[in-house]
Amino acid sequence: MPTVAVIGGGVSGLTAARELRHRLGPEARIIVLEAYDRLGGKLKTVDFADGPVDMGAEAFLTRRTGLAELVHGLGLGGDLRVPSGLRSCFYVDGRLVPAPRRTVMGIPARGADVADVVGADAAAAVDAEATAEPLPWTPGDDVNVGGLVRSRYGREIVEKLVSPMLGGVYSSSADALGLRATVPALAETFDDLAGRGEAVRLSDAVSHLLALREDAARAATDRGEAPTPVFNSFARGYRELVRALAEDADADIRLNTQVESVSRWRGRFWLEPVGEVDAVVVATPAPTASVLLGTVAPGAAELLSTVQLASSAVVGMRFDTDNGLPETTGVLLGTDFATRATVHAKAFTFSSRKWPHLAGRGGAFVRASFGTLADSSMVEADDRTLIGYAVEDLRTVSGFTASPVETFVQRWWGGLPCLGENHLDHMDRVRADLDGVSGIALAGAVMRGVGVPACADSGRDAARKIVADLSGS
Ligand SMILES: Cc1cc2nc3c(=O)[nH]c(=O)nc-3n(C[C@H](O)[C@H](O)[C@H](O)COP(=O)(O)OP(=O)(O)OC[C@H]3O[C@@H](n4cnc5c(N)ncnc54)[C@H](O)[C@@H]3O)c2cc1C
């Protein structure tokens, strides 16, 4: 039976290991090699005095169904929790404004839908786009999101809406992110319009997507279905998923084992410092994957070396009261100068308002997030400084004046890949290059998207490739 090494014990690597076990059977030797002293990577649950809270990923989108199936398959369906249904807010000119409902990642179709956040002039610029020259677009094109929205609607929509929304997910500004990788439905709508020879306008494309969303919601209501929550989380944190995946993979897990290199060796692979194996899944962040694939798949390695990583820091704060904490799931902060001059954080999650199971513990729990691709100075600040900023900024934006009774600072160096313009195209080329190398596969946030469901999908894809390679099919 083959020996397969999985390099990286995050959700991508662990899902790959589990899939390999299910497909190769109990006799196969599966080794998970993890550089740190714990599994999970960006999934990290920390024990506070009143219970566990996630300090990396804290939820997952239910739209992609693969992870939910995996979770149920692992027997964790009963551990899933749904959010409260409250809305998030934007912090605008010193006040909290509920996040507009009718946008696609902060991009509106009509000025009136976002006037509360951006003001009347910026809202009028949105409406003016409907009669502007169409966007030059050839199906398959890609652009950066910030550049696109600024050129059609103006600067304020980007700074006050789109960058805060995308920054909350990717830790990068809209200007660093590619449309096709981060708002794929919009790129596809542009493709459709251009393919039919119709004028391509941002407001028309967003209107079309909003109409689809609203039609789907109406149809579900007509069928008498309760609305599906957009997010799920785990009652006791992502730790449960990590533990269940590792158990089900039944792998030889080696912590504190940093793989230095992967090379060919007598028709197999040699991993330094581990030894000989038949096949390898690389499930590390892109720069490390680039180094590890350098000799066995140089084309893929070169493309992966161009992927930048954004660092961030999360400050978890537990309070013994929630009196005065606004009734919102959290606050997104603009990237405009006025906001940056008064606050250091980029976002707050009011975890105990967002998740009823956390509210049930009493008091309040808030996560403050700092740092972007363009500016990691906040991530470099010491713990005391970060906690100070978190408390001060929370007071500024929400008026909540309680002092935390417990805090935890988590830095995520290189936490998220920046999926820039043409990223998906590059990843198709990476995949094509690796298809030509039998016994090597790549998984991770760089492949199909940064969300946990996309990472799990990438792990499964990688395992399937290895199984096909090993069976010579
Ligand atoms: C602050 C933050 C919040 C997030 N929130 C969400 C969220 O709410 N919902 C969501 O869906 N997604 C969220 N994400 C994204 C998601 O958590 C990650 O994209 C995902 O967990 C990445 O998983 P991975 O296994 O691909 O990589 P990682 O988790 O980075 O795992 C890779 C592993 O490889 C190991 N490794 C690296 N080099 C080597 C080597 N040479 N040898 C051996 N091991 C090595 C690392 O130590 C690490 O454990 C968030 C990310 C961050 C940073």
TrEMBL record:
Gene3D superfamilies in the cross-refs: FAD/NAD(P)-binding domain, protoporphyrinogen ix oxidase, domain 3, Protoporphyrinogen oxidase, mitochondrial, domain 2
Keyword annotations from UniProtKB, A to Z: Cytoplasm, FAD, Flavoprotein, Heme biosynthesis, Oxidoreductase
Pathway assigned in UniProt: Porphyrin-containing compound metabolism; protoheme biosynthesis
Domain Amine oxidase residue range list: 11-466
An example Gene Ontology biological process: heme biosynthetic process
Domain of life: Bacteria
Family classification: Belongs to the protoporphyrinogen/coproporphyrinogen oxidase family. Coproporphyrinogen III oxidase subfamily.
Gene Ontology CC annotations of this record: cytoplasm
Protein name (record): Coproporphyrinogen III oxidase
UniProt-listed InterPro entries: Amino_oxidase, FAD/NAD-bd_sf, Protoporphyrinogen_oxidase, Zeta_carotene_desat/Oxidored
UniProt-annotated location(s): Cytoplasm
GO MF annotations, alphabetized: oxygen-dependent protoporphyrinogen oxidase activity
Pfam short name (any one): Amino_oxidase
Summary of the function given for this chain in its UniProt record: Involved in coproporphyrin-dependent heme b biosynthesis. Catalyzes the oxidation of coproporphyrinogen III to coproporphyrin III.
Location (main, coarse): cytoplasm
Keyword Flavoprotein: yes
EC number of the protein: 1.3.3.15
The keyword Transmembrane helix belongs to this UniProt entry's keyword annotation: no
Cofactor: FAD
Catalytic activity: coproporphyrinogen III + 3 O2 = coproporphyrin III + 3 H2O2
The gene coding this protein: hemY
